[in-house]
Structure formats: C-alpha cells, structure tokens
TrEMBL record:
Organism annotation: Labedaea rhizosphaerae
DUF6542 domain ranges (all copies): 5-108
Stated name of the protein: DUF6542 domain-containing protein
The entry's keywords: Membrane, Transmembrane, Transmembrane helix
InterPro entries: DUF6542
Domain of life, per lineage: Bacteria
Transmembrane segments: 58-79, 85-106
C-alpha cells in the first residue's frame, strides 16, 4: 500500500475546513468550496484514505447544514442551502469517484 499522500483524518479535516469557510462566506461560495475541498482531498489522499474521500461529500454538506442550524439560521434557510447545493453535491460525488478510480487504475499500472 502506498504511503504517498495525506491520511484519512487530514483529508477529512482539510475538505471540511474548506467547505466550512465557504459556508461562513455563504452565497455561491459554499457550493464552490464543497467542490474544491472534496476534489483537492481526492487528489491529495493516500490509497488507504480513498473510502473517506468518496464518502465525505454528503457528510460534509450535512454537517455544515446542521452547524448553520446550531448557529441560528432558520430551518428553512438550512434546507434552502441544502437544496441549492444538491446538484453540486451530485457532481462532486461523481468527480471524486472518477478521480479515485483513475488513481486506483494508475496505481495498478505502476506496480505491474
């Protein structure tokens, strides 16, 4: 197993931090921050962190939505934020999955 790249906890913390900053700024920056954080995490992760990378986009979005509820935003505001992020979330999950598959394939070819 390759040790190049970031461990699972660093990947999760980095993507969550980027998405959290986008959530604090708000508006169109939140979906862009989710996409950027998760794609960068997929690129920077080591092979043992691939499951975390693939599973984290919906978890991050849900955590940010819950955090906005806890910090005083209305329930409808949080739901509206989730609904605007959903198309980006689906595209992010597809992009992250594709990046992981390509990295797995390239890793296999290098060992062979």
């Amino acid at each position: 197993m390759s040790t190049k790249g970031l461990p699972w906890w660093a990947v999760a913390a980095g993507a969550t931090a980027v998405a959290g900053v986008g959530g604090l700024v708000g508006g169109p920056y939140f979906p862009a921050a989710v996409v950027a954080g998760c794609v960068l995490a997929a690129i920077a992760a080591n092979r043992s962190a691939f499951f975390t990378v693939v599973a984290q986009p919906p978890l991050i979005v849900t955590a940010i939505a819950v955090a906005t509820l806890l910090f005083g935003q209305s329930f409808l505001g949080a739901v509206a934020q989730l609904s605007t992020v959903f198309p980006y979330l689906a595209a992010t999950m597809a992009a992250v999955g594709l990046i992981v598959l390509v990295r797995l394939r390239l890793g296999r070819n290098r060992r062979a």
